[in-house]
Amino acid sequence: NHNYLTVWMPDRAGFVLAVNAGIRAGDSKYVIIQNNDTEVTPRWIEKLMYPLKKEKKVMISGPNTTEGTSQQSWDILQKQGEDWEDMPVLTGLNDEDTVTKLEEVYGNKYFDRPMAAFFCAMFKRQIFDEIGVLDEEYKEGYSDDVDFSYRTLQAGYKIVYVPTAYIRHHNRTTFLSVYSKDEISKKLHANRNLFKQKHNVEKDSDGKNRDYYKSVQ
To answer: pLDDT tens for residues 60-78?
Structure first.
């Protein structure tokens, strides 16, 4: 029963240009970028919106996701530090049981992160007004989310992870229907290099930019 606007692109413009067209067409206070190979669970929007409403400095919130699909996958986070020692093992659970377990452990907690992956993320529109939309040089995607996250942090804002907002992600379903794995690998490598060149990674004597990219991959 919601009203919605569909923006038709004149041709297959790629992920980044299509996302930017959607952002520009809307005027809502909050924006969600979400891939078409995802499945949501109850109250996911409410959970992602909570930290955005609670803290002025939080501009992006990202969800928990399927085993082995990104740096926001519960199994990868389990290996990354004290915050995730209590992360339950979710292998083989249905979505209802997954969310129940996560809510028992984390309640309404959320955690600072260096980036959010754009298979699904929620934003305050304010951040697009201040730093611009996604960089369209990244075209069909890969590293566009790294770039935008980096720019958000550079502007003095925060990115958070909401472990109870669980989004099942069927990773690269669309890309694999269009490109071979070798072609995808080449696109990923090219956009990594674009990020490094854009942010002068090779020129930083302290290595901060280089370390940033490494920390989110």
So the answer is: 999 999 888 888 898 888 8
pLDDT digits (tens, 9 = 90+) for 145-162: 999 999 999 999 999 999
**Secondary structure of residue 161 in the 3-state scheme:** strand
Burial (0-12, 13-18, 19+ Cβ within 10 Å), 108: exposed
Rg (CA), the chain: 17
Q: How far is CA 194 from the centre of its chain?
A: 19
Indicate the SS3 state at residue 10.
coil
CA-to-CA distance for 143 and 135, rounded, in angstroms?
A: 10
Q: What is the pTM of this model?
A: 0.89
Torsion (CA) 46, 120, 89, 188 in degrees, nearest 10 = -170
Q: Give, as one character, the DSSP assignment of residue 137.
A: G
**Spatial CB neighbours of 61, under 8 Å, sequence gap ≥ 6:** 48, 49, 50, 51, 52, 110, 116, 121, 122, 159, 160, 161, 162, 165
75 Cα distance to chain centroid:
17
Contacts of 173 (CB under 8 A, 6+ apart): 36, 37
Closest CA to 74 of 89, 62, 60: 89
